[in-house]
Amino acid sequence: MGYFKFDIPKDKDGNPIAYSPGWHGTLDKCPSNVEVLCYNDKEGYGIAITPDTELHKDLMPMDAAEAERHLAELKVEDGVFVGEEAIANRMDWLPEAEIEEKVSGDTVEEIINTPSVTQTAQFCPICHQFITYMPSNINCKRLVMTCPAGHKVVVYGVNNG
């Protein structure tokens, strides 16, 4: 197994460029069978592992002890994603749910005894299956939800708390 460090390029303002899950560099010498272990957008690098034992020097090879020590020292925070779950749930690259407005019917009015509440129906942008209704009187910034087909998407609250 070979560990390596890769640079995350920055735009002219010094912000990391957009990239998709599993991205691990732009060199022609990058192996194709790679698992990304972390993305550190704050400092502009990532660490990955490959079954290849011979790595090109431009890939910035690391020995296992050095890589494991470095990963253990990283704290998951804004701009730092360590581990499969943190990388998979990164909101930057999850698609946003599609929204349709709907006014709730009499059944809801009878139950809560209040005037009609506007709701937005949230649909998966990949398979277009219904995910949830988001009432306009609910404040939230964003939620990561999974549609019935298993696609993870970001759902924004109507008022964005």
Q: N-to-C SSE series?
A: EEEEHEHEHEEEE
Mass-distribution shape: elongated
List segments where confidence is low: pLDDT < 50 over at least 5 consecutive residues: none
Straight-line N-to-C gap: 46 Å
Number of strands: 10
Write down the oligomeric state. Answer: single chain
Rounded mean pLDDT is: 78
The largest β sheet comes out as: 5 strands, antiparallel
Q: How much strand?
A: 25-35%
Biggest sheet: strands side by side, in what order?
4-1-3-2-5
Q: Which structural category do the helix and sheet elements fall into?
A: alpha+beta
Q: Count the domains.
A: 2
Helix content: 10-25%
How many helices?
3
Radius of gyration: 21 Å
Features:
3 helices, 3-stranded antiparallel beta sheet, single chain, alpha+beta, 32% strand
Detailed description of the structure:
The protein has 2 domains: 89 residues, no CATH class; 63 residues, no CATH class. The chain is of the alpha+beta class. The strands form 3 sheets. A 5-stranded antiparallel β-sheet has the order 4-1-3-2-5. A 3-stranded antiparallel β-sheet has the order 6-7-8, with no helix packed on it. The protein has a two-stranded antiparallel ribbon with strand order 9-10. The mean pLDDT is 78.
Describe the structure in brief.
The protein is 14% helix and 32% strand. It is an alpha+beta fold and 161 residues long. The longest helix is centred in the middle third of the chain and has 10 residues.
